[in-house]
Amino acid sequence: MFADEVNAAELSKAANGNKSLAAYLKAHLARVHAGDYFAVLGYIQMNAENEASLAVLRHLVRDKKRVGDLFRLRSALLHSTGQAYKGGPNSGVFLQITCDDSVELPVPGQKYSFGIVKAAQARGDFQVLADRGRRSLRVHLGSNLKAGLGTLQAAVQKAL
Asked: What is the pLDDT of residues 20-62, one digit of tens each?
């Protein structure tokens, strides 16, 4: 069994067969303990509105669980902080957020788009977290990012 399958099985068992987003988030957030931090790893378009929505999410968990929180965009995940997530102590609880790109921009001279590159990077980063036994959950918001963030925020509030 692969590490991400172990993580998924652990979450599924903790959710007692309830496959709702709120149930999985509740199971995932129950893994946050004193001394941990909660990290939102965003692979989404960043603008003031989306950043504010993610801040509300982080602060809900931070305030309820009384742990540190942080947010990182995909480009920062490959560098210093990303290395700490993947190689440092197992004190992070990660929520990776992905979405479909609203516009597919082709990579010049290639048969794929930047959206494909971003999705591959997200999958790869998530796999590394899973391989290292990190407590992680990936939520894909689909193509309507604003609605997806609203649904995610409501599910986190319900999960807490």
From this structure: 999 999 999 999 999 999 999 999 988 899 999 999 999 999 9
Q: DSSP states of 12-74 as a string?
A: HHHTTT--SHHHHHHHHHTT--TT-EEEEEEES---HHHHHHHHHHHHHHHHHHT-EEEEEEH
Q: Could you give the C-alpha distances from 29 to 25, 73, 81, 155, in angstroms and in order?
A: 6, 21, 21, 11
Q: At what angle do helices 21-29 and 3-14 cross, to 10 degrees?
A: 100
Neighbours of 153 (CB within 10 A): 15
Question: pTM for the complete prediction?
Answer: 0.89
The size of the chain, in residues, is 160
With vertex at residue 97, the alpha carbon angle to CA 41 and CA 10, rounded to the nearest 5 degrees, is 90
CB 20 within 8 A of CB 27: no
Overall average pLDDT of the 13-17 stretch: 91
Rg (CA), the chain: 15
3-state secondary structure of 137: strand
Mean pLDDT of 104-116: 87
pLDDT digits (tens, 9 = 90+) for 129-146: 888 899 999 999 999 999
